[in-house]
Amino acid sequence: MQDFIWLLLPVAAASGWWAANRSARRCQSELQKSNPVYFRGLNHLLNEEPDKAIDVFVEMLEVDSDTVETHLALGNLFRRRGEVDRAIRIHQNLIARPALSREQRAQALLELGKDYMRAGLYDRAENLFRELKDSRMYVDHALRNLLQIYQQERDWEACLKTAEALEDATSEGLAMEKSHYYCELAIKERSLGQPGKAHGHLKKALGVNRACVRANHLMSKFAQEQGDKKAAAKLLRAIVEQDPDYLPEVLTELVQVYKSLGDLSQLGKYLDELVDRYPNRGVELYRAELLKEQEGEDAAAQYLLQHIGKTPSLPGLIRLIELQCRLPEVGSEHLLQGMREHLTRLMAERATYQCAKCGFQAKTLHWQCPSCRTWSSIKRKPLLESET
Description:
By secondary structure, the protein is mostly helical. It is 73% helix and 2% strand.
């Protein structure tokens, strides 16, 4: 009897396999009849056409409370990949569904607004973010995106209003950003021949942010244009005290203002003070130039030679070579001239400025970083800093 049972076991296994296989084929046939779209998508995958397959699967994915997050994730994926048209289509399809909850519709509106921004359709994006703000849904996200749009469009009045609304909504301080908006308005009014309004905007900039270097710099420029050299000198010195990192940006103007006042003695003392307080900021070059005007090239070369021995810098070395090339006792003029040319080329290729937030490098000063859009984050790199 036991032997007979052992003989039946392979037969039972084979029968089970046959029944299971037949059932699977029946289910597959029924699925193919009821949902041919699925197999169309599967066929795209097998033919290595993933984009077409995704479109098919999105088409067959019903929009309900359980699949909204899936649609949002797909749309965000397309936007990150740069396929903005697909992202817009998915998010528009979501918004058109009446079964969405208020929260889900607001989330879809936010994502669609981001799609429009990515596509450069700022007017459509602005309308959606305004709708979100008015509905009091995702207010902080809507305001931040509106701020980006208005900055891109250089609508500084709208930037100010939006920044103030964002401060109220989040208790976040945006004094730095608002001061730059006022500076932009001041530049605009100045170009329109409205110096009074321009000065008023700069006072407001300093009112919201007393550490706004840009506002003082613009006020010093306006004072110079009006011939008030003493006021300009005072403002430029205030900038140095506000933020020494901007010292190289105002040095030329400082020297010119002092020279126009005829106070070379006071200028020499001030430059000596700056050299001691802020080494390796390029002040020594201006001090050497002043010595050259007052005492000659030999005195300037001696000064730079002593200074480079303490704090070496490429600009200082280049200037020293230039001075020594013209001194009569130097016999290697051609060698020194060649060294000067090579060093000058190296300095010209060097990125002079760097963003403290994202690391973006540039050869000129930007008040707003072109990469991360942060205000006042780009400053001049130290002269001794090596290239990385």
